[in-house]
Design goal:
Order of helices and strands: HEEEEEEEHH
Number of helices: 3
Structural class: alpha+beta
CATH superfamily: Peptide deformylase
Helix content: 25-40%
Distance between the termini: 24 Å
Radius of gyration: 15 Å
Number of strands: 7
Strand content: 25-35%
Bound molecules: ligand K1U, zinc ion
Shape: globular
CATH architecture: Alpha-Beta Complex
Strand order of the largest sheet: 1-2-3-6-7
Length: about 170
């Protein structure tokens, strides 16, 4: 396993649509494991491959609470097949926009089709934090950040703060 560096905005790879995975093989399984290690270390509850500079459609998620056993999910080529008309508002953060949070409105419930780490097709139904997180991660695969869902005023404020964070943390 390996912990990988996470890209911080602005970075053109975070604005690029990722390509589908052609075959779920040992390379993809290793990448998903490395992404989970990177996500747990950050710490975070999700991570998409473009955030580590890999433009492939792979996301990992674990929304288990502090007092629950880990529940890692590896989703390859995830697709939203249904979204509720009901919306929910949730506070979102992003490992590529450090220390920034904003309220984002999204469908309250989604169905997602994906391949698991064996390459088998699966479908999940998600509500609550899992619904928020899986939509946030699939957005990353399409080059979309949570700030693209908020007002231009809030977005520009956040992007300016992240630019300062990046300058202050440059090595
Ligand atoms: O994709 C990412 O950038 C990861 C992001 C996922 C996410 C969080 C909140 C709502 C929607 C999507 C994060 O994990 S931000 C960090 C975070 O949520 C967290 C940090 C410390 C403790 C617990 C959670
Ligand atoms: Zn993010």
């Amino acid at each position: 396993m390996a912990k990988l560096p996470i890209l911080i905005a602005p970075d053109s790879r975070l604005k690029t649509k990722a390509k589908p995975v052609a075959a779920v093989d040992d390379r993809v399984r290793q990448l998903a494991d490395d992404m989970l290690e990177t996500m747990y270390a950050a710490p975070g509850i999700g991570l998409a491959a473009p955030q580590i500079g890999v433009l492939e459609r792979i996301i990992v998620i674990d929304v288990a609470g502090k007092d629950e056993p880990p529940a890692p999910l590896r989703l390859i080529n995830p697709e939203i097949t249904w979204a509720s008309e009901d919306l929910q508002t949730a506070e979102e953060g992003c490992l590529s926009l450090p220390e920034q949070w904003a309220e984002v409105v999204r469908p309250a419930e989604v169905k997602v089709r994906y391949l698991d780490e064996t390459g088998a097709p699966q479908e999940m139904q998600a509500t609550g934090l899992l619904a928020t997180c899986v939509q946030h991660e699939i957005d990353h695969l399409n080059g979309v950040l949570f700030v693209d869902h908020i007002s231009a005023l809030r977005r520009n404020m956040i992007l300016r703060k992240v630019q300062k964070w990046k300058k202050d943390h440059a090595s």
